[in-house]
Amino acid sequence: MGMNLIVIFAHVLEFIILWAFADRVFVRKRPLWQALLAGMGLYGICVAVFILFHNTILNTSVSAVAVFLFVFLFYNAKIKGAVLTSLFITLSVMATDLITMSALSFILDKDITAYAQNELIFFLMVCLCKTMHWFVTRIAITAGIYLKGRQEKRFPLFLLLYPLCSMAIFYILFVIALEYRVSRTITLSIFITCIAILLSAVLTYIFYSRTSKQIDDLFHSQRELERVETDIAYYALLDRQNEVLKQLTHDEKNHLSTIKALANDPNVDAYIDSIYNEIRYHSMFGNTENKYLDLVLNKYQAICNETGITFTVSVKTANLSFIEAADLITLLSNILDNAVDAAKDSKERTIELSINRRNGFDVLTCTNSCDTPPLCEGKRLFTTKKSAGFHGLGVKSIEKTAAKYRGEFDWVYDGAEKQFIVNIAFFHQT
Questions:
Q1: pLDDT per residue over 352-386, tens digit each?
Q2: How far apart are CA 226 and CA 326, in angstroms?
Q3: Nearest-5° angle of CA 330, CA 333, CA 335?
């Protein structure tokens, strides 16, 4: 393996470490393949500068700019976040290289830089330095996760043994290469072994990350199921209370009508009419002819009143009566919860919900004011408290429920009007 190939290999490792770090710290805003292609292109420039100029300051500067551009362009990172990431990654590379080579020189009592022309020794030094760099970034990520208390993102500390064990293996091979004349066959074997160790480490972390995400999704799905069960019980109790209240209201209106007739006094009539209108207003528990739809709408009307949001509802020619109560509650709760979250932080503070029949489809449309564009990759929305649209897991629940009833779910963000719009078209259920 030539020296230039080793340099390329070193930069590939640096890019993989940067990608793993950025994916863990930030939310990616562009497709993965675009990020990887652009990242490889940026690091290709770094390789060319390294090989052509052999200038440490220039190499470091170009690498720092490459890190900044990669994070800023492909992740939800502001300029400050991208700059800090660039500084951290660049300083980590410099520090781990310096510490590793200084430690080797001190332990072995040799000037390690004098052996840099030996391809095998240079390769093993690269493996040691980049594994140390990887270890430092993992420590930083883990420390940040624990400090923020993000339970669902915590990283098992025992996995940090992997880079430590890898560095121990690389050190032993380094000593062997330094102290003994190694045959070409053994040299090739060491190259292959080191690459296999690094590859297995990358695959282990990828497998763990995916498994962890699946467990997190399962956990959130379980929580969503428990929430739906609680909501069903709540709405059932509310329905019973409303039935009693309706009866009481009906009786009260009859009593007032009787008093009005007996009094035969214009002042009493006017007073009773004012009371009657107030009772009639508050006795309108909903007229969609779908009691669970009415209950959900009444709940969110109360929430919007408390939070200063104007909630407008238009249910004219359809009422989603074909959707089971549990699914209707899940669907509307996810839509309106996130609509409220976005609207209450917006300037206009409005939510408009309409359910109508059009051309053989029952169409549900929810439009809420939303000053900040949602975090997304294509039509995929991400789970974050700062996201202006839906939380990612809420969208999955909506899509699943809509599909169960032959519904097509779509969303769009109107930047000009600063509105987040959800549309679900259900094929008319007969």
A1: 999 998 888 999 999 999 998 887 766 677 655 44
A2: 11
A3: 105
pLDDT over threshold 70, residue 174 = yes
What tens digit of pLDDT does each residue of 47-75 get? 999 999 989 999 999 999 999 999 999 99
User: What residues have CB less than 8 Å from 389, skipping those under 6 apart?
Assistant: 338, 342, 370, 374, 375, 376, 381, 411, 413, 420
Q: Domain range spanning residue 10?
A: 3-182
What's the rounded Cα separation, in Å, for the pair 364 and 348?
A: 22
pLDDT mean over 280-297: 70
pLDDT given at position 332: 92
Average pLDDT over residues 105-115: 80
What is the model's pTM? 0.68
Where does a domain end: 161, 182, 203? 182
pLDDT for the residue 386: 44
Among 317, 313, 322, smallest CA distance to 294 is for: 313
Name the DSSP class of 347: S
Query: How far is CA 14 from each of CA 39, 67, 187, 204, rounded to the nearest angstrom?
Result: 11, 10, 23, 17
**Residue 123 in contact with residue 1, Cβ under 8 Å?**
yes
Residue for token pair 């800023």: 72
Shared domain for 41 and 176, answered yes or no, is yes
CA distance 82 to 87: 9
Give me the amino acid identity at 149.
G
Mean pLDDT calculated for residue range 405-429? 89
Q: Which residue is listed with tokens 């699946």?
A: 214
Coarse DSSP helix, strand, coil percentages of the chain, rounded to the nearest 5 percent? 70, 10, 20
Nearest alpha carbon to residue 26 among 198, 147, 144: 144
Q: Which of 182, 208, 235 is the last residue of a domain?
A: 182
Helix (H, G, I), strand (E, B) or coil at 300: helix
**Closest by CA position to 293, among listed 353, 222, 359:** 353
Residue 199 contacts residue 191 (beta carbons within 8 Å): no
- From the list 361, 420, 365, the residue with the least C-alpha distance to 391 is 420
Claim to verify: residue 293 and residue 175 sit in the same structural domain: no
Domain with residue 427: its CATH number is 3.30.565.10
